[in-house]
Design brief:
Keywords: Coiled coil. With 89 residues, the protein is an all-alpha fold. It is 98% helix and 0% strand. The protein has one domain.
């Protein structure tokens, strides 16, 4: 009876040890997966930031072009107004 109890306790201890080893292995795998995901996220963030900077620069350039075109339209309208006045005089 005591021998059977010792065997049962040893079996439980061995099973627990195996389960813990498997748990540690699974945790190690999850840590590696997390690191890979962190790296992927960092890469995606860097790509996003680069694309955003490029878009911001393009947006700024377009705004400058719009401002120049508006100024040209104002000058053109002033010239047209002056020509109309001269034509009417």
């Amino acid at each position: 009876m005591i021998a059977q109890q010792d065997i049962d306790e040893r079996t439980i201890a061995e099973d627990t040890h195996v389960e813990r080893s498997q748990d540690h292995e699974q945790i190690s795998i999850l840590h590696l997966e997390c690191e890979a995901l962190r790296k992927q996220l960092a890469d995606e963030k860097a790509n996003f930031e680069a694309e955003k900077a490029k878009n911001d620069e393009e947006n700024s350039n377009l705004k400058s072009q719009v401002s120049r075109l508006k100024a040209m339209m104002v000058k053109a309208n002033e010239g047209i107004s002056q020509q109309k006045k001269k034509a009417l005089d």
